[in-house]
Amino acid sequence: MWRASTSGARDDGTGCFADLCRCIYTSCWTLSAVDGYGLCQLDASSEVAMPLGRWLSSDALRSSSSKTPRPQRLASDSPSDVLWEQLEARRPAPLRFVLHHSRRPNGSLCPCLEVNLSSSSPSTPYYTVTRILDPEHRVPYITLCPILAAAGLTILQGLLRFDLTPPAYDVSLAGLEPWDDLWISLPLTRSIAAELGLLHNLAAILDPTTSLAWSLDEFAEGLSHNWRVPQAVVDAASYSTDAITRPDVGFGNVLMLPKGQQIKTLVSADLRATIVGKAEARRKQPQFQLQQKLVQWSTQLHSIWLDFSNLADQYDGDSGEHRAPLLCELQQEVAPPTSTDMLEWTQLVSARMTGLASIAQPDDAEGLLEPLSLANVAALRPGNPPLGFGMAATHEGADEEVALRHLQAVLRGKLALLQQMSLLTLGPFACAPDLDPAQDTVERGEPSLVSPERERANQHQSQPVAAQLTELAISSDIAALNAKVDGLAAKLERWFETPHRTGVANAATTGANLNREADSGNTQDTSRPALSLWSTLEMLPWPLLVLPLSVILVLSTIKAMFV
């Protein structure tokens, strides 16, 4: 395999060098055959296995160096190509440090860690998972809706599939949260992500060793952190709030500071005002409002369905006096989606469609067809009928059975309706990046005052930064790999020098012993023939050196290609 791979690389040039690395990589490490969750490293090469694995499984060999052209892809049915795609798909998403505006009365900032999960939807390139860094809670809170959306599940499907009840999640966190979501704890998030097959992508943000990481907004004194971004990404000389919150700064892990130590970074008034302005602009976006409404409707309807299920399970023909009040109370509930909710949903969905928001000013007749304002929609809500609308009051057992069947039919219809509404708007579950004022003006259909050149620049800057973050993570891995190669080379040189030094010391000791025996008159011949260089080499444990030498050779070749 070595000879064939080498000849292929020689015939095709450097373009097939990635294929050679794949063969070497698969010969030194094996993939898990059960679920492919990662690499099984050999103990002898554990220092370089993870950096090399992340590097070879990324696009570094194809795009990180201008010296090596992008190699041609193998056939789609090639095992090496399939392995390569599996390695690329299981890379942990890089972390970003983001400051959001909380809902607390004091207007404090909400420091968060975020990662992007890729999406199969053409309208939504990625879904953003957010983790709040808060010192008040013992466990971090993480958004579940983007994880469900990345797995192709709606909120209702996630609530029913994982049997989530209100104690397991919170829609709001007493104002700490920047928006409504299914905020769940880190251990529960890990369990759900593992079941959905996304734990490998969320390994960095769901790392349990960083569960105690926090950042606190102290207003005039800035931000306090008990962690830091790795030195390889942001060095100590340039470490600041602006440096660690840049959109193109991604890192693979969080470095916890020793207990009792903290880092303070200042927050300028301009940066704080920018964060507040972006939060206000985001709340006005129809996409964001639609997401918030779906979260509220899904949790309310699921809670009512749980109450009905508990009441139906308790219906055994006894305790009729206790069931009747509960049934009457449930009949008075107003469950979403109501007719008003449907009206609001259609307005939010239509506002996202191209061209509908840029219609010219209508005349008096066409004004009747304009979307209703929030005040007009709120005025319609008191007229929404309850679940028991059209049903007479229940007093006897037979009436209770009829009422239960009626409630089940109504709730079942509402669940199906909300599920279809969620499927039609699954894309908006992604937390879109904050837009600048010019982009927000264009999205709302208002005339833009920005030049065409500026608009093209904004469109270029608004592209997802996942590729840039991945390149930064790859560069960090390459630097770590180079350091490991140098360290292993130094260790190998010292290891080769050790037998030679030992032989010299033994020879000196033997000579001293012979001199002492000669002085004492002992004429016994104890001289031995000197060991040749070949004999010394034969004594070395060469079978044990095959794998380390192969790894060193490959890494040295890789380093020479990219330096």
Could you please describe the fold and organization of this structure?
With 563 residues, the chain is α+β, with helices and mostly antiparallel strands. It has three domains: 1-91 and 465-501 and 536-563, no CATH class; 96-281, Roll (Mlu1-box Binding Protein, DNA-binding Domain), CATH 3.10.260; 285-357 and 371-433. Helix content is 50%, strand content 8%. The protein contains 20 helices and twelve strands. Strands 3-4-5-6-7 form a five-stranded antiparallel sheet. A three-stranded antiparallel sheet has the order 8-9-12, with no helix packed on it. Strands 1-2 form a two-stranded antiparallel sheet. Strand 4 (109-118) and strand 5 (126-132) form a beta hairpin. Helix 3 runs antiparallel to helix 18. The chain starts with a helix and ends with a helix. Residues 1-18, 20-75, 428-469 and 517-531 have low confidence and may be disordered.
User: What is the fold named in CATH at topology level of the largest domain?
Assistant: Mlu1-box Binding Protein, DNA-binding Domain
* % residues in beta strands: 5-15%
* CATH H-level superfamily of the largest domain: Transcription regulator HTH, APSES-type DNA-binding domain
Q: Biggest sheet: strands, sense, closure? A: 5 strands, antiparallel
How many domains comprise the coordinates? 3
The neighbouring-strand order within the major sheet is 3-4-5-6-7
Which stretches are poorly predicted, pLDDT < 50 over at least 5 residues?
Answer: 1-18, 20-75, 428-469, 517-531
Q: How many beta-strand runs?
A: 12
Shape: elongated
Mean pLDDT figure: 74
Number of H/I helices: 20
What would CATH call the architecture of the largest domain? Roll
Assigned CATH class of the largest domain = Alpha Beta
Helix content percent band: 40-55%
Q: Could you tell me the radius of gyration in angstroms?
A: 33 Å
Assembly status? single chain
Determine the structural class based on helices, strands and strand pairing.
alpha+beta
